[in-house]
Amino acid sequence: MVKPCLLEYTREALVDLMAELGHKPFRAAQLQEWVWKHRTTDFEQMSNLPPALRAQLAERFSLRPLSVVEVSNSSTGGTRKFLSRMADGGHLVESVIIPAAEGKGGSRSDRITLCVSSQVGCAFGCKFCASGLLGLTRNLSASEILGQILAAEEISGTRVDNLVFMGMGEPLANIDNLLSALTLIMSPEGLNIGARHITISTSGNVPGLRRLAEFGKPLRLAVSLHGASDEVRSQVMPVNRKWPLGQLLPALEEWNRTGKHKITFEYILIEGVNAMLPEAAKLARISRRLNAKVNLIPYNTVEGLPWVRPSESHCRAFAKALSSAGIPVTMRYEKGHDINAACGQLRLKREGQGEG
Ligand code: SAH
Ligand code: SF4
Q1: Is the pTM of this model over 0.85?
Q2: CATH number for the 66-352 domain, one of 1.10.287.90, 3.40.50.150, 3.20.20.70, 3.50.50.60?
Q3: Ligand 1 touching residue 173 (CB < 6 A)
Q4: Helix, strand or coil for residue 173?
Q5: Which fold has domain 6-60?
Q6: Cβ(297) to ligand 1 under 6 A?
Q7: At residue 354, does pLDDT exceed 60?
């Protein structure tokens, strides 16, 4: 039996645990300091806890829900992907460490953005996405989401100060664990990362969006749009049949009523599918309605998929059509350096070796 991981325990949950184990409530704060301030990986190091408590904890709990099995460097930009094996059953997920871009923030190498996975695989099956090809194996627990952050810090020797949920999986389809993880990520007793440093990327899970809005934190929201009409969007994103634009856009308007930041629309440019100039005009209309900015992502080739990336001049023409319509637009070409080139298309080459 795999021991449950303590990472996802909030202060309140630890206080309850201390009561259950017959210890004073103030031990919860001490324990939490060891877990988050000192990032301790061994109960034996928790020198101000009574030995009996340390032994009880060690018998029942773990401090890390995953172990890193591979770290790979990208050829450009200092981006590093790592592969972690979950403590139970051995499923694998990828995460991506992205150093702060030079120029931005004064080329400080002490700042990193981490792209985390929220599920093993994904049930949404978007037609351009490597993660979707796998289908969904299971949700990640809050501890497994948190564990990726601690692993990234251990690999890089640097604190993670920006977090993007753009790895494998649909974060809003795992909303309970996402919210539990976010609570500890944002808590001063936990990782103390501010909501404005956290981006949730969603393919448009409408009930999940409502729950995230109710959570009431000024998180950043990225929405994978990839089609500005139901016809085009449904062609590449089956989720659009469940929550078509007629439901998604009002839910985003609702988000805007409480949200503090502009929504970002992610739009992959795919030759002959959604990259025609009339589509840019439709995208501009939607973006204006939602007061959103647009991040264009020239499609990155996924082995086994038929789609084609448009030429650079075509991508530029599409971007120009948006900016001429007054929509803030960004586009990045460099592979590996760009968050979207690095995350969002994580696919395990080693699945099958994951079990056991
Ligand atoms: N499920 C969430 C988060 C993970 S995907 C979502 O869909 O938003 C993160 C981003 O990477 C999404 O915008 C996704 O559409 C994009 N992405 C997936 N496959 C890609 C590919 N082959 N080329 C470029 N971007 C891709
Ligand atoms: Fe899932 Fe996002 Fe990939 Fe779609 S793009 S299959 S929602 S991970």
Answers
A1: yes
A2: 3.20.20.70
A3: no
A4: helix
A5: DNA polymerase; domain 1 (1.10.150)
A6: yes
A7: no
